[in-house]
Amino acid sequence: MTSKLPNTTTSIFSVMSKLASDHNAINLAQGFPGFESDPVLIDLVNKAMKDGYNQYAPMPGDKKLREVISKKIESLYYKKYNADREITITAGATQAIFTAIAATIHKDDEVIIFTPAYDCYKPSVELFGGKTVEIQLQVPDYKPDWKKVTEKVTEKTKMIIINMPHNPTGMLFSEDDMLQLQKLAEEHDLLVLSDEVYEHIVFDGEEHQSAAKFPQLAKRSFITASFGKTFHNTGWKMGYCVAPEYLMKEFQKVHQFNVFSVNHPIQKALATYLQDEENYLSLPSFYQQKRDYFLELIKDSRFKFTPSNGTYFQLLDFSKISEERDIDFADRLTREHKIATIPTSVFNENNEDFKQIRVCFAKTDSELKKAAAILNSI
């Protein structure tokens, strides 16, 4: 058999998490919170199960949940999405991303991605015969150069994928970035896939610049989001996608034959839980406290860093510590020092190595303190 993804190997997240388990290391590698979901939300799921919501949900998702999402987006970004025709609940954001690509990308279409890039983008495009065109973001600020982006656009370019707040760098797109993206997409009739799973985790008083805030951009964009990232329950694999009706029609054609519908009692619970806005509006201060606590603990270490602007990830520069490739350095940290991190070169064009590792600070304070003690000893 000929593989459809001959160059795809096991995800670095799986590799490093297994290594962490094998060596009994603190796992700051995989991006999952190290604390429990709100007991209120757990009780709401339990109640929905007891109330009998244990069969298939409607294909696009529970109607009340779609209505609450519509209100949330309108409140935050001043854009009204039709709950009946422009919102679909998905099995996590990765399924939403895959489905948007499956619905729109044909053989030989080109899709621009910014590297370092989340590892599901490229293989998803390649599965449908498309080609990714990579634009490498550069240290230290990882900001896009829109002149370079424009130069990469050809008659075959179909879509641009953006991710903000950006994983793994913690970079935020500015309002100017989004306006330049909007102009470029309009001029070249491009679709945009905006991966916004960390939309509620933005620091230092900055604002998340959702594609929904920019009218002409919203008209040609899929926006994907994650309840798992937002509410500390990544194992539930719950997310959603919003898009204008003409795009959502194509999205749902794939969605109905992929998963059809997703976890019904969790949708019912989220429909209630989301009505209290504080459940997501409190996240910036909650995670900024985690970031600041962790960085204060390691401020005298040999690692260099610029505080993350968003997400619950922090890049650490180890260039003053070792000349090893980041993959080898991260491997050694796990085996010898019992702390697992993610080497970032695996997300870069041609595996460019900036001597940086990514750590997740969505952990308990006690775990962050233990991790910091290890990092300070290196």
Helices and strands in order:
Layout lengths: L11 H11 L3 E2 L11 H12 L12 H15 L9 E4 L1 H13 L5 E6 L5 H7 L3 E6 L9 H7 L4 E7 L11 H14 L2 E5 L19 H4 L2 E6 H4 L8 E4 L2 H14 L5 H10 L4 H4 L1 H15 L15 E5 L8 H12 L1 E2 L1 E2 L12 E5 L4 H12 L2
Parallel strand pairs: 1-10, 3-4, 3-5, 5-6, 6-7
Antiparallel strand pairs: 2-8, 7-8, 9-12, 11-12
Helix pairs in contact: 2-11, 3-11, 4-5, 4-10, 13-15
Describe the structure concisely for a colleague.
The protein has 378 residues and is α/β, with parallel strands linked by helices. The protein has two domains: 12-30 and 282-376, Aspartate Aminotransferase, domain 1 (Alpha-Beta Complex); 39-278, Type I PLP-dependent aspartate aminotransferase-like (Major domain) (Aspartate Aminotransferase, domain 2).
Task: Characterise the protein shown here.
The protein is an alpha/beta fold. The chain folds into two domains: 12-30 and 282-376, Alpha-Beta Complex (Aspartate Aminotransferase, domain 1), CATH 3.90.1150; 39-278, 3-Layer(aba) Sandwich (Aspartate Aminotransferase, domain 2), CATH 3.40.640.10. 41% of the residues lie in helices and 14% in strands. The chain is built from 15 helices and twelve strands. Strands 2-8-7-6-5-3-4 form a seven-stranded mixed beta sheet, with helices on both faces. A three-stranded antiparallel beta sheet has the order 9-12-11. The longest helix has 15 residues, at 63-77. It is globular, with a radius of gyration of 20 Å. The termini are far apart. The mean pLDDT is 96.
